[in-house]
Amino acid sequence: MQNPEAKKLVSIKNLTLTFNAGKKNEKTALEDVSFDIYEGETFGLVGESGSGKTTLGRTVLKLYDPASGSIEFDGHDINKMKKKELADFRSKAQMIFQDPQASLNGRLTVSNILGEGLDEAGFTKNKEERRKKILELLHMVGLNEDHASRYPHEFSGGQKQRIGIARALAVQPKFVIADEPISALDVSVQAQVVNLLAKLQKEQGLTYLFIAHDLAMVKYLSDRIGVLHWGKLVELGTADQVYNHPLHPYTKSLLSAVPVPDPVKEKAHHVKSYDPSFEKDGQERHMVEMETGHFVLATDEEAAKYKADQK
């Protein structure tokens, strides 16, 4: 669980991102998104495909420039960072990508894939030190020395993702964005990778932004969860609050789609449909705190209704 005395590591305030601004195909990918991530916690971000999860993660790493709002990392606004500050930020914040095959250079051996980051950050002084560090990274993620000389196509999906995790951790980051790191893997391998992420977090004191569309997996790994829909944060709370006491109808719809591991119960399982039309009624909605730490995007009237429905 999150340490109540932990400090804010990432602070996102009123973040809005628009693609192709001023053109016919202008698209608002993120709209007025605000939340904090504390040191040592795992913040889960969920939502269906196209909701803006990956876009938000990439914006936090300054791969996209927001139209408005701010992102602070360790008290510093990343949009105001100069070259040296940005280089330092890049080593402290890393990303694990969704598709391990596409994110690894097929022309490089694992040794060179991991060594690139070490060389760029100046973490090793000579070839022997570089080799030792690469082997440490491989052992850290459950691979061995023989794997260093192989190419990505020689590995299974789970092994490739382990290489991706090792690459992200090579420069000793404080903060890791895991962008659906298990969605391309078999179910049995998913559990292995999630357990590895949890183990590494404990050992190295990492902070995660865990992006996924599987609420059940996010609940297992996360301290707090944010639910994103059409680029807006519609609900935010602890894993228990969001999973066991959902407020927003979109969150309820997502949860109803989680399969039940019981054939009898699954047969009677009903998925709740979600009608998003009310979101376009022109009314202004804001994040309302329904109980300590549990927020929902709503008008005052909707918030009162959500609270009544909980009773």
From TrEMBL:
**Where the protein is mainly located, per its record?**
membrane
Topological type in the membrane = Peripheral membrane protein
Q: PROSITE patterns of this UniProt entry?
A: ABC_TRANSPORTER_1 (PS00211), ABC_TRANSPORTER_2 (PS50893)
Q: Which residues form the ABC transporter domain?
A: 10-255
Q: Which Pfam families match?
A: ABC_tran (PF00005), oligo_HPY (PF08352)
Query: What sections of the protein cross the membrane?
Result: none
Q: Where in the cell is it found?
A: Cell membrane
- Output the Gene Ontology terms for molecular function: ATP binding; ATP hydrolysis activity
Q: Which UniProt keywords apply?
A: ATP-binding, Nucleotide-binding, Peptide transport, Protein transport, Transport
Highest rank taxon of the organism: Bacteria
Q: Does the keyword Disulfide bond apply?
A: no
Is Protein biosynthesis given among the entry's keywords? no
One GO cellular component term of this record is: plasma membrane
- Which BP terms does GO give this entry? peptide transport; protein transport; transmembrane transport
The similarity annotation says: Belongs to the ABC transporter superfamily.
> Protein name, please?
Oligopeptide transport system ATP-binding protein
Q: What is the lineage of its organism?
A: Bacteria, Bacillati, Bacillota, Bacilli, Lactobacillales
